[in-house]
Amino acid sequence: MAAASRVSVISSFFNAEDFLAECVQSVLEQDFADLELILVDDGSEDRSSQIALSFAASDERVRYLEHPGHQNRGTCASRNLGLRE
After folding, report:
1. Which pLDDT score is estimated for 10?
2. Annotated domain spans of the chain
3. Residue 53 in contact with residue 39, Cβ under 8 Å?
4. pLDDT in tens, the chain (85 residues)
5. HEC string for the chain
6. What CA–CA distance (Å, rounded) separates 18 from 16?
7. CATH for 7-84, options being 3.90.550.10, 3.65.10.20, 3.40.50.1820, 3.40.50.720
8. What pLDDT is attached to residue 77?
9. What's the confidence (pLDDT) of residue 33?
10. What is the C-alpha separation between 85 and 83, in angstroms, rounded?
């Protein structure tokens, strides 16, 4: 029997405080247990960063990334950052 594959979910966000917690909870409540959630902050200026950091601190499946200097680099650059990790 082959081992189950690990699933990586990459979610980039920018000023998404109204929806970020719901998004994260949705991923973490999936039946598939062997997953990681990579949250990539694209330079948010609202409370999104704090929300994402809180999830990363409380659940080892969640990782928080941001661009150097907390820059806004766009969706493509943010997804690529997540992919590199």
Report:
1. 97
2. 7-84
3. no
4. 455 558 999 999 999 999 999 999 999 999 988 999 999 999 999 999 999 999 999 999 999 999 999 999 999 999 999 999 8
5. CCCCCCEEEEEEECCCCCCHHHHHHHHHCCCCCCEEEEEEECCCCCCHHHHHHHHHHHCCCEEEEECHHHCCCCHHHHHHHHHHC
6. 5
7. 3.90.550.10
8. 97
9. 81
10. 5
The whole-angstrom separation of Cα 1 and Cα 10 is 28
Task: Supply the pLDDT for residue 5.
Answer: 54
The label of the residue with tokens 């719901």 reads 22
Strand order in the sheet with 62-66: 7-13, 35-41, 62-66
